[in-house]
Amino acid sequence: MTTLAFFDKGEIDALLDDPGFLRASYDNLQDLNAHIVAYLIGVGSSSAYDAVRFVLKHCAHNGIDHLTHEQIARLTGLSRTTVTSLVREVALAEPELLR
Q: I need a labelling partner for 11 at 20 to 30 A (CA). Which of 29, 66, 93, 99 fits?
C-alpha cells in the first residue's frame, strides 16, 4: 500500500527546521546508501554465481518470497539462461536460500 502526503510551504519549512525530521531523513539516506553499496559489491564486483547467490540471500533475508529468473537476470546483468543454471547450483549448495 502506498500513501501519498501533501504539504503546504509552511509545513515543509517547519519540517526542514525540525532537527528530529532532519536526523531521521539523514539516517534513512545512510541506510539506503548502505544497501546500494552492498548491492554494488554483491552483484557488481563478484562472480556470476556470487551475484545470483547475493540476490537470493538478500531476498531470503528481507522476506521476498519469489523472484523469477528473468527478474534475477535483470538485477545481476546476466542472461536468464545463465541465472537458471546458477540457481540450480545455489539450490544444491544452499537450499535454504530458496525456501
A: 29
